[in-house]
Amino acid sequence: MADEGIKIIAQNKKAWHDYFIEETYEAGIVLAGTEVKSVRQGKVNIRDSYAAIKDGEVFLYNMHISPYEKGNIFNRDPLRTRKLLLNRSEINKLTGYVQQKGYTLVPLKVYLKRGWVKIELAVAKGKKIYDKRQSIAKRDAQRAIERAFRERQKM
């Protein structure tokens, strides 16, 4: 991301391994005050999280935000369902994708943009085992090509 003022808090690198990423969207996220403080401290885990559309709204499930240390009674459940903020047209597009077989909504990144907590949401299609092997083989071949090219440049 080339924009100024963006600080990446958490990334879901496993999503790139497990899914074909079709399209990405930036969404706001509804958080309580103590949750925002925990996010700013980097205490977020989105590895097993996913999004779903329910009653025309997008919700994020299984995103773990650790309780804020000084939050006492104001802390919320770390795994609670959180609402994502998207435009109606974006929600309609996502609904169309998700209704197709094999597509799901997966969070890729949580970041701060101009002080606001944002999440990068991807429309993803699950990879089969042979697709994962193919991706690994392609990545290894690319590394070998780059290594050979660097060796060639040294001579």
From TrEMBL:
UniProt keyword list: Cytoplasm, RNA-binding
GO cellular component: cytosol
Source domain of life: Bacteria
RNA-binding is among the record's keywords: yes
Pfam family, one: SmpB
Gene3D superfamilies: 2.40.280.10
PROSITE patterns reported in the protein's UniProt record: SSRP (PS01317)
Predominant location: cytoplasm
GO terms under biological process: trans-translation; trans-translation-dependent protein tagging
InterPro entries: SmpB, SsrA-bd_prot, SsrA-bd_prot_CS
Compartments reported by the entry: Cytoplasm
GO MF term set: RNA binding
Recorded family membership: Belongs to the SmpB family.
Function: Required for rescue of stalled ribosomes mediated by trans-translation. Binds to transfer-messenger RNA (tmRNA), required for stable association of tmRNA with ribosomes. tmRNA and SmpB together mimic tRNA shape, replacing the anticodon stem-loop with SmpB. tmRNA is encoded by the ssrA gene; the 2 termini fold to resemble tRNA(Ala) and it encodes a 'tag peptide', a short internal open reading frame. During trans-translation Ala-aminoacylated tmRNA acts like a tRNA, entering the A-site of stalled ribosomes, displacing the stalled mRNA.
Official protein name in the record: SsrA-binding protein
Provenance organism: Caldicoprobacter faecalis
Gene name in the database record: smpB
